[in-house]
Design goal:
The protein is an all-beta fold and 626 residues long. The protein has one helix and 57 strands. It folds into two domains: 289 residues, 7 Propeller (Methylamine Dehydrogenase, Chain H), CATH 2.130.10; 312 residues, Methylamine Dehydrogenase, Chain H (7 Propeller), CATH 2.130.10.10. The chain is globular, with a radius of gyration of 24 Å.
C-alpha cells in the first residue's frame, strides 16, 4: 500500500478536514484529513488556533477520538484499514506523541471509532458494515458487536457503555457488548450517517439523509423528530450540559437546537464540510474543505476562527473553447490551455463559488458547475454568473448537457432536468436509489452511475439498468455511442458493447467484459480509441492510472490492467479530450495529459500542477495590477 504524499504546509492540512475532536479538557483539538494526517491544535485561545504537531497514516484519515478516561490517549482511524492509538503529551510542541499500538486487521476502510467507558476497549466501524471491539492494551480483537447491510458510518458509546451504530442501510442498532443478545434495532426510511449519545446517556441523536434528526431513547423509542434542512443531516454533537445539540448538514451549515428541538441558530459558511462537529467549553468545531477547522461560539453562533487557505483538490473537468476547466474544492475553476506551447500555459482563476465545485459541463461559450452546497451555476467563459438554481436539496456531483436539457444528478439520487438558459426545473426523472456520482451523454440520452451499485442508460424516463456492480459505482464513460464503461468500489471496471433492440426502443448489452482493477476502489474511468477495440483508462485510490485493451472476441477470463503512471494521492477524475487523448487529475493536484499511440499503448504527454498553475495566475494578476 503506497503512502499519501501531499506534503501539507505548517499552517494546516493539504486536503479537506474529515473529522474534529476536542481533548476532554478542551485545550486541544485533533483534526484529520484526506491528506493522510492528523493535526493537533492548541485551542486554549480559540480565536487563534495554533498547530502543534502532526501524526501520519498511509491513507486518508476518517476519524479521531480522545479517550474519556486516559485523556492523553487519541485513537485515529484510516482508509489504510488501521486504527492507531497514540499517547499525546500535554505540550506536544515540546514532546513528541508516542505510537502505542496499531489495530491493523480490519478488512475495509475504518469510518469511525468510539471508546468504551473503561478507557481500554475501542469500537471500530468500517465500510464493510462491521462493528468490531478491540482491547487497545494488547491490540487483540475482542469480537464483533454488530453488522450492517451497507457501510457502517458512525458509532457512539453512552456513559453506561451502550454502543450505537448507524449505517447507509438505514439501521440504527444499540447493544451492550458485555450482554450478548441485548441488541435492539430501529430501521429508518433513509440512510443514517451520524449518531451521538447525550452526555447523560438518556438520549441518542441520529442524523438522516432526508435532513431529519431523531432523538431516541436507549431502547430506540422515538422521543422527538427535528427537521434540520432540505438536504442530508450528517453529524451531531451535544453541548456538555445536554441543553442543546449541534448538527452539520450538507447545506454547508451548522444548525443548533435546544434539547426540545427548537432551532436556536443557523450558521452558514460554504467552506464548511459539516461531516463532523464537536462541542467543548461552549465552542463548536466543524470540518472544512479548506486547510483547517472552523471554530464557532455555541451560544452566540459567531465565528471564532476560520481556516486560512483553500485547497485546490480537483473534482471535475470539462473543455471550453480549447481550455481545460478544472473544478476544485476551493470553489474555483482553474482554466488553462493544455496544448499551449511552452512549460507555463496561460492560466485563469474563475472563482465561481465559495462551495466546492463537484461537477462541470460545457456548452458553446458557457459552462455549468454543480456545487456541494446544492446549486447549479451557469457562467460565461470569464466565469461571470449568468444564472443559478435554487438549492436542489443535496450536493450535485454530476452534470450532463443532453438535447434541450441540462441534467443534474444529486447526492439523494435525484435526476433533475434543468432549462439550460434559466436553470429552472423542467422535468424530474426516475431517481437512483443512491447518490448519482456520474453522468455522460449517450445516444439521445445519458448514462449514469450511482451508489446503488447500478449503471443505467436512457433519458429522464424509461431508463434501463445495464448491469450491477458488487459495490457503489463511482464513474461512467461512453465511446462512439456504442460502448459504456463503469468504475466501482468493488475494484473492477465493467465495459459493454451496446446495440439498439430490434424495435429501437431500448439498448441491449451484446458484449460485456469485467476488468480487474487494483485492490482498491476504482474512482474514475475513460474510453479511448475505436468502439470495436476500445482502450479503457481507470484511476484508483491506489494512486495508479491503469489501462486495458478490450477485444470483444476474446473472452478468456478476467484481465488485469497495465499501470501507466502513479500519483501521490488517489486519482479523482478524468475527461476525454478527443478519441485518442484524455486529461487525468489526482487529488495531489497533478493533471496529466495522456495519449494513445498506434499500438494502443497509453503514454503521458504533459504534466501540470494545480498549485503551480494557481500561483502563476495570481502572479500574473499582481503584475497587471502593479
Amino acid at each position: 500500500m503506497r503512502t499519501i504524499d501531499l506534503r501539507p504546509g505548517p499552517a494546516g492540512h493539504a486536503a479537506p478536514v474529515t473529522d474534529v475532536a476536542f481533548r476532554p479538557d478542551g485545550s486541544q483539538l485533533a483534526t484529520c484529513s484526506y491528506d493522510g494526517t492528523v493535526l493537533l491544535w492548541d485551542v486554549s485561545r480559540p480565536t487563534r488556533p495554533k498547530p502543534l504537531t502532526r501524526l501520519h497514516h498511509r491513507r486518508l484519515v476518517n476519524a479521531v477520538q480522545w479517550n474519556p478516561v486516559r485523556t492523553d490517549l487519541l485513537a485515529t482511524a484510516s482508509a489504510d484499514k488501521t486504527v492507531a492509538v497514540w499517547r499525546i503529551p500535554e505540550h506536544p510542541d515540546t514532546r513528541r506523541p508516542t505510537l502505542l499500538t496499531v489495530l491493523a486487521r480490519h478488512t475495509d476502510d475504518i469510518n469511525a471509532v468510539a471508546w468504551m467507558p473503561d478507557g481500554h476497549r475501542l469500537i471500530c466501524v468500517s465500510e464493510d458494515g462491521r462493528a468490531t471491539l478491540w482491547d487497545t492494551r494488547t491490540g487483540a480483537f475482542a469480537g464483533e458487536v454488530g453488522s450492517h447491510a451497507a457501510h457502517c458510518m458512525m458509532v457512539s458509546v453512552s456513559l453506561d457503555g451502550l454502543v450505537a451504530t448507524v449505517g447507509e442501510d438505514g439501521m440504527v442498532a444499540v447493544c451492550d457488548p458485555d450482554r450478548p443478545g441485548s441488541t435492539v434495532e430501529r430501521h429508518c426510511a433513509a440512510s443514517v450517517e451520524g449518531c451521538a449519545w447525550s452526555h447523560s446517556g438518556t438520549t441518542l441523536a441520529i442524523t438522516r439523509d432526508d435532513g431529519v434528526v431523531e432523538l431516541l431513547t436507549p431502547r430506540l423509542a422515538l422521543r422527538r423528530t427535528v427537521t434540520v434542512a432540505q438536504t442530508a443531516a450528517r453529524a451531531v454533537a451535544w453541548a456538555e450540559d445536554d441543553a442543546s445539540f449541534a448538527v452539520g448538514a450538507y447545506d454547508g451549515c451548522l444548525h443548533v437546537f435546544d434539547a426540545d428541538g427548537r432551532r436556536l441558530h443557523r450558521v452558514h459558511d460554504a467552506r464548511m464540510w459539516p461531516r463532523s462537529v464537536a462541542v467543548a467549553r461552549g465552542r463548536v468545531a466543524v470540518g472544512s474543505f479548506w486547510n483547517g477547522p472552523h471554530l464557532v461560539d455555541l451560544a452566540r453562533a459567531t465565528p471564532l476562527a476560520e481556516p486560512s487557505a483553500p485547497n485546490h483538490g480537483p473534482n471535475a473537468m470539462a473543455v471550453l473553447g480549447g481550455e481545460l476547466l478544472v473544478g476544485c474544492d476551493s470553489g474555483t475553476v482553474i482554466a488553462f490551455d493544455p496544448d499551449a506551447d511552452g512549460a507555463a500555459p496561460s492560466v485563469r482563476l474563475l472563482p465561481v463559488s465559495d462551495s466546492p465545485v463537484l461537477s462541470l459541463a460545457a456548452d458553446g461559450e458557457e459552462f455549468y458547475t454543480g456545487t456541494y452546497a446544492g446549486h447549479v451555476h451557469r457562467c460565461n467563459a470569464d466565469g461571470e454568473l449568468i444564472a443559478v438554481t435554487e438549492p436542489l436539496g443535496a450536493p450535485v456531483p454530476s452534470l450532463c448537457r443532453v438535447a434541450d436539457l441540462l441534467v443534474a444528478g444529486t447526492y439523494n439520487g435525484a435526476l433533475i432536468g434543468l432549462d439550460p438558459s434559466s436553470l429552472a426545473e423542467a422535468d424530474r426523472g426516475e431517481p437512483h436509489a443512491g447518490s448519482v456520482k456520474s453522468l455522460v451523454p449517450f445516444g439521445d440520452g445519458f448514462a449514469s452511475a450511482a451508489t446503488d451499485r447500478t449503471t443505467a442508460v436512457g433519458g429522464l424516463h424509461g431508463r434501463a439498468t445495464l448491469w450491477e456492480h458488487g459495490n457503489l459505482v463511482n464513474s461512467v464513460a461512453t465511446l462512439g455511442g456504442r460502448v459504456v464503461a463503469s468504475a466501482s468500489r468493488d475494484h473492477t471496471v465493467k465495459v459493454g458493447l451496446l446495440e439498439r433492440s430490434p424495435a429501437g426502443e431500448a439498448w441491449e448489452v451484446v458484449r460485456r467484459r469485467t476488468l480487474l482493477g487494483p485492490d482498491e476502489s476504482v474512482k474514475c474511468v475513460a474510453l479511448l480509441g475505436d468502439p470495436d477495440s476500445p482502450v479503457v483508462l481507470a484511476g484508483s485510490y491506489d494512486f495508479g492510472l491503469h489501462r486495458w485493451k478490450v477485444d470483444w472476441d476474446d473472452d478468456n477470463g478476467l484481465r488485469s490492467g497495465r499501470l501507466v503512471d502513479e500519483f501521490r494521492q488517489g486519482v479523482s477524475c478524468m475527461y476525454r479530450l478527443d478519441e485518442r487523448r484524455a486529461a487525468v487529475a489526482g487529488w495531489d493536484g497533478q493533471i496529466l495529459i495522456v495519449g494513445l499511440d498506434a499500438d494502443g499503448e497509453v503514454h503521458v504527454q504533459r504534466r501540470f500542477d494545480l498549485d503551480t498553475l494557481a500561483r502563476q495566475a495570481r502572479q500574473s494578476l499582481w503584475a497587471v495590477a502593479s
